[in-house]
Predict the 3D structure of the following.
Amino acid sequence: MTNSVASSSSANLVAKLGPIWLNPGVTRRNALTYFYAAFFTIGMVAFLSFMQPYLLTENLGIPADEQGRATSILALPYELAFLLMVGPLGALADRIGRRPIYVAGFLWVGVVLALLPLTENLLQLGLLRAMYGVGSACITSMMATVLADYPQERSRGKMLAGSGICNALGAVMMVGLLSQLPRLFSDMGYDALMSGRLTYWCGTVLAIVSALIISRGLKAGKPGKPQARERLLQLVVKGAAEARRNPRVRIACAEAFIARGDLVVVSTFLSLWAKEAGLLAGLSLQEAVAKAGMLAVLVSVAQLLFSPVVGFVLDKVDRLTGMSIAMGLAGIAYLWVGFSPDPLALVFIPAALMLGMGESAAILSGAAVIGQEAKEDIRGSVMGLFNFCGSVGTLIIAVVCGFLFDAWMPGAPFVFVGCINLVILVAAIRVRIQTGYRAPDARASETA
């Protein structure tokens, strides 16, 4: 009896991490572990996308003028695997909890990173990209779901800002630092092929360590009522029904379509463009990759510094209003970058900084809207739908942008994405007018 009372008291305990109020039962250790996981989740995704041109050049010997098309082809198995997994994973998280899926995802990613630098042809690389899609679906969908679980509504923007900062720092470390490793290993006497392999294997070690830390630190179980007696398909259907009922959930899913696409354009096509510009300028492959890595760091630093601003705004205004502002900012940034002549020129720096700001605003504002609107009992299922829409967007954008990159100009993917951001801006304003004002601290049950 005493143990039961103590357990109930512990479950209702409200903790605070800095300015962030946590939901009952969520401890500071849980929140700190989440921030660690957010650091490496996006870092892993960004690292793999950034290093892919290295594999295409060194392992497969694909000419630079064909790599845009190859990148589009490789996006297909990755995104199809991701697409098939995110919905069921969200529903599964409502049954078994978030932690087991998160841990399994990092272990899976570690295995794929160990195998990727051993590829010898496009077919092998495509199969491994599909395998990576499964692991990526696990870690990114659980990152979004745990982020929706942990904060109280009044602190959601601050939690999002903290997560955004960790995402940006993770991208800086995994891309900015690990992108320098091929050159470091080359200076130690290894050839270009082995330098790439050692770099990927460093990523494997980090993935395995992250899985161990997450298994010890994240909160077990799930919030709300248990969903164990319902089939996964029923939970997926519940998530879709919530989107039909709530126009704010629908527009958040539409925003996820482009926000995830924003990420792949920045992490994949910006590095490809910068790498090609470096090679045209006479740099070696390792030097060109290092230059592209510094550009990616610049974008991530802007994202890092702007995340607290976005979080503050999202806790002060109607979150759909915040999303509208984000879409406008992102649209302008992507168009500016797309029409810039040289990504390695000094005059490109302001455009790169605004790109990071726009990316930060787009990612955080969509997460804020869906986190507020998703009901606690089926939050995993709703987040699964949100991530599914993001995966569809990434698939379409990656394929289209790859062909635009080769057929039009290197900045074409950014022009394309910028225009879609502006279309979502118009749709968000329409839904904002239709649904009226909603306080940023209103819970899902109060916004129905």
Remarks:
- The chain has one domain: 26-220+232-446.
- Residues 1-11 have pLDDT under 50 and may be disordered.
